[in-house]
Amino acid sequence: MIDLIGPDHELYDVLRVPAQWSFRDVRPTAIARCSSVDDVVEALAYARNSGLHVVPRGGGHCFAGRSSTDGLVLDLGGLNSVDVGSDGLATIGAGARLAAVYQGLHSHGLTIPAGCGPTVGIAGLTLGGGLGLLGRRYGLTCDRLVAATVVLADGRVIICDEKHDPDLFWALRGAGGGQFGIVTALVFDPVPSPAATRFAVSWPASEAAEVIAAWQEWAPDAVDDLTASLAVTPAEVRVFGAALRPPAETADLLADLPGGDLDLRDGLSWPELKDSLVGPEGDPTAISKSEFFQRALPADVVTGLLAQGCELNFTPLGGAYNRVPADATAFVHRGERFVLEHLGTDREQVRRSWTIAHPHASGRVYPNFPDPDLTDWVEAYHGPNHARLAAIRQHYDPERVFHFPQSL
Question: In which element (H, E) is residue 380 found?
């Protein structure tokens, strides 16, 4: 029997609130705590029989609140195992969070390219692509995916890969989660857990324009062994990340940046390095908008952005991300140079900042950073891959059991 948590249960207000604070007031009819594939099958049957909208929740970090509903939330937190087989492949439960994933794989000398947020769910990250510190070397998180177990809307359980239900497997690699079925387990081809140098370079806010100009020309074209993100706040400017090189070589790779306050650390395990880059918890009421860019922002646009006062977060692409054809997986964004995220607590301020940069963007948006304001979200998320994705969606979920605003 599934463990159903209703509004009268003492855990209801603990379990219903997602990581994204914007959706803290959504009150599900019930929460189904799932710890097995059979639990998911039973919960879906319950939702069908009760006429309830159903959504899966791994980490609950969706910017658009897609893991919240007034219907039935499938809490996949109990599906959190991390196992490495004799074939070297890693099978990870859909409810596992990144901190546990890194620790579990590191005990086998392995890891996968993925993000830094310790409580981010592996399933949502993978299904929307998955950017991270090893991405420029090894590609997206979904590029290392070799199979997935999926519970379909009618209760059937299938395992898809390149040979079995290959269209579904293609779609699961980058279209975004919660659209084709409930993924309960993911199988990855992991990579060696690396020795790396963590770095951070900081400058006063007055040098932001110069640093942004240098970063845009350098970071997306850097060697694959280096991932350098850029954060600009009203207080300071920071370039930070990791290099799969010793400290002296890492310092040489950073020489194209203006001189700043450099901090290098080596001797960290990969999980420790990831943990060291997790900053203090941000404002839970923060609002985010972002886009991909294929060319550098002009100086006058940068000046306009800095005048708005939002936090600006630049993430580089290039490298292995862009050496995969755009139609090889559902993730179509293979020719981008960087992502720019505008972050703040004033919605209109964030929109103004986004509007200043928007004319210079590619028009594409990272599926894991969904934006409810988008008017042409089909092109933004999926580009020319949309037609194939829509056909796959119709085949596997013809009654649109899994739906949300901007779903296929």
Answer: helix 377-382
